[in-house]
Design a protein that fits this description.
alpha/beta; 9-stranded mixed sheet; globular; disordered C terminus; Glycerophosphodiester phosphodiesterase
């Protein structure tokens, strides 16, 4: 008798958990296609195998199919033309208080300059060739050398070039000063505020910017972990952790099926909490892997109303921006 009661209790609890997290009980948003974040704009792709913080990715690019260089205004324009809703870019605050847009911590890999990017004055950065270090054949040829002279933009130049577009700003450092400086830029110009989709990267500048700009969303590794770990612990109850509210949630596509209520119930919970979900590529320890193949795109749920992160906007944009999701799958 006692065993039956225990079994009955387990069945009741299991049923309650199921109903609380049944995706089919929450309607999808019904979007025709997802919104897209183009990582670094249209850029030269490379193998991620064995990549770490010290890897010079410009020295291991795939064979060229175009001449665009990451983080340049021309690459951003091409990304928006290919269907990007948001372009991700990387910033460094220089000694003369300019936000230079470049991915690398140092100049030696990608450019003809030397030294730490954030320690180099803007007049020097502006003269560099951002296509100098690209090679797809181990240094035998450098097909973009000479084509990137003067193409490193300032962040304010990017905003001016695309007044009606959106950007996700990546802080490459952990300097609180960077977040405060970006917040000052955002707070004095409503157009810049409207164009700033969010911030992420270094914990200190990300949180400083969020604190100083009302409604600005962002994430760093610690905040993302706090959200997802707590959600897996008790999100099944329908109660959303504070770390998941009014934020950006980067969710690897291979982990997504295992979060409570995926996809519809999970997305509704995040939407109701004022948070945006960004589907990124398979988990690899960072946020840079993207939805870069038709096979991965096929795993995006129909009606998904979040954002999709891609490194190949030039090919994935036309694929994802279809009006009939059946054709995507």
């Amino acid at each position: 008798m006692r065993g039956r009661k225990i079994l009955g209790g387990v069945v009741v609890i299991a049923g309650a958990v199921y109903l609380l997290n049944a995706s089919w009980l929450a309607a999808p948003a019904g979007n025709d296609s997802p919104r897209i974040i183009a990582h670094r704009g249209v850029h030269q792709t490379f193998s991620h195998a064995g990549v770490d913080a010290e890897t010079c990715t410009a020295s291991r690019i795939d064979p060229l199919t175009h001449d665009f260089m990451e983080n340049t205004i021309t690459s951003m324009r091409a990304a928006f033309a290919a269907g990007a809703d948001v372009v991700e870019l990387d910033v460094h605050l220089t000694p003369d208080k300019v936000f230079a847009v470049l991915h690398d911590w140092t100049l030696d890999c990608r450019t003809d300059g030397h030294g730490v990017t954030e320690q180099t004055p803007w007049p020097t950065l502006k003269t560099l060739d951002v296509g100098y270090g690209y090679t797809a054949d181990g240094g035998k040829t450098f097909p973009l050398r000479g084509k990137g002279v003067g193409l490193m933009p300032r962040l304010d130049e990017v905003y001016a070039a695309f007044p009606d577009r959106s950007f996700l700003v990546n802080f490459k450092s952990r300097r609180t000063e960077e977040g405060e400086a970006l917040a000052a830029l955002i707070n004095i110009d409503p157009k810049v505020r409207a164009a700033t989709f969010g911030v992420y990267g270094g914990e200190e500048p990300t949180r400083a910017a969020e604190a100083a700009v009302t409604g600005l969303k962002g994430f760093d590794k610690s905040s993302l972990k706090a959200c997802l770990v707590a959600y897996e612990a008790y999100g099944w109850t329908g109660f959303l952790p504070g770390a998941c509210r009014n934020t950006l949630v980067a969710l690897p596509i291979d982990i997504a099926p295992y979060v409570w209520g995926w996809p519809n119930r999970f997305m509704k919970r995040m939407r109701d909490a004022g948070s945006d979900v960004i589907l990124v590529g398979p988990y690899g320890g960072d946020f840079t892997t993207g939805i870069d193949t038709p096979e991965l795109a096929a795993k995006i749920p129909p009606g998904f109303d979040g954002y999709v992160w891609t490194n190949r906007i030039e090919t994935m944009g036309p694929l994802l921006k279809v009006t009939d999701p059946v054709h995507r799958h």
